[in-house]
């Protein structure tokens, strides 16, 4: 349910499940983490990385010291890099010439060997699909996915980019808001990221957006400000599976994994600037159906 002013109010179904789960199939619990506890990895220079996964995607959040590097091997599939700090600066080496990028950026790193080097202290977010098994195994919540969640549709790989594999860099501050468009949405062959525009102050609680997804998870990454995730688990026939409504306060940086078909909405509560980034895998069909919403749609064909 969306407020009439929300661009999502006219959306159709996000997906059409090929086989709906039985009504008694358990519904997974939401997972929340703030990136300030024990890291999954620590580099030789002391830079921590926290890893959290969903069924089809994972997020690696690194706090890099100047000169430290994040490396991926030749067998690595395409992945996304997000810089969310105004003074961020890294150099990415992949196929082609190295590229030094600054500020708030979303970049797509092509398949193959890559290196991300911090030119100054910088927080780096990497989003991978679940085929990156070495990192998935080190996720803080890896035990939650020892078996696939039956309510989540499997990963689908969309067509190859129209102009071939290459490093793609999208400066976010160059993308102005447009009436009727929802956030700043990008897709790859396996991922979709919506880097929402900053909001100032708390969200109007009379214009929240409770809704659900039939068969995919949502990762909600808070990178600036404070939020409350409101989540309601629908009742199944088995009362043992029922849960109380959740109203979970989080700071930044933090990540919530929201399972289907929970009803959810998130409200910014910080008095300053608040920024939330939503992550999906595979790319959402309903967002892709909206003309002009996916900003790199001309590069990544539809499934």
TrEMBL record:
Region of interest (Disordered), residue spans: 1-25, 238-269
Superkingdom to which the source organism belongs: Bacteria
SUPFAM superfamilies (alphabetical): RmlC-like cupins
InterPro entries attached to this UniProt entry: RmlC-like_jellyroll (IPR014710), RmlC_Cupin_sf (IPR011051)
Protein name: Uncharacterized protein
């Amino acid at each position: 349910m969306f407020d009439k002013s929300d661009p999502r109010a006219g959306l159709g179904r996000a997906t059409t499940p090929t086989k709906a789960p039985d009504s008694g199939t358990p519904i997974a619990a939401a997972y929340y983490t703030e990136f300030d506890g024990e890291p999954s990895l620590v580099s030789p220079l002391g830079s921590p990385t926290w890893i959290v996964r969903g069924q089809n995607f994972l997020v690696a959040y690194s706090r890099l010291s100047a000169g430290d590097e994040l490396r991926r091997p030749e067998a690595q599939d395409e992945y996304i890099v997000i810089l969310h700090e105004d003074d961020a600066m890294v150099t990415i080496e992949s196929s082609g010439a190295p590229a030094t990028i600054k500020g708030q950026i979303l970049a797509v790193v092509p398949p193959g060997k890559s290196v991300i080097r911090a030119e100054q202290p910088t927080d780096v977010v990497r989003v991978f699909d679940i085929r990156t098994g070495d990192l998935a195994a080190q996720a803080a919540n890896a035990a939650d996915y020892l078996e696939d969640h039956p309510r989540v549709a499997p990963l689908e790989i969309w067509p190859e980019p129209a102009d071939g594999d290459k490093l793609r860099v999208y400066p976010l501050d160059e993308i102005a808001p447009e009436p009727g468009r929802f956030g700043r949405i990008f897709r790859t062959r396996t991922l979709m990221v919506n880097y929402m525009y900053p909001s100032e102050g708390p969200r109007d609680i009379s214009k929240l957006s409770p809704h659900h997804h039939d068969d995919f998870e949502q990762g909600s990454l808070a990178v600036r400000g404070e939020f409350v995730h409101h989540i309601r688990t629908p009742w199944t026939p088995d009362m043992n599976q029922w849960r109380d409504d959740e109203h979970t306060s989080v700071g930044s940086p933090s990540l919530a994994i929201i399972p289907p078909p929970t009803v959810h909405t998130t409200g910014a509560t910080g008095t300053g600037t608040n920024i939330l980034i939503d992550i999906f895998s595979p790319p959402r069909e309903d967002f892709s159906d909206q003309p002009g919403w996916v900003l790199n749609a001309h590069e990544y064909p539809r499934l």
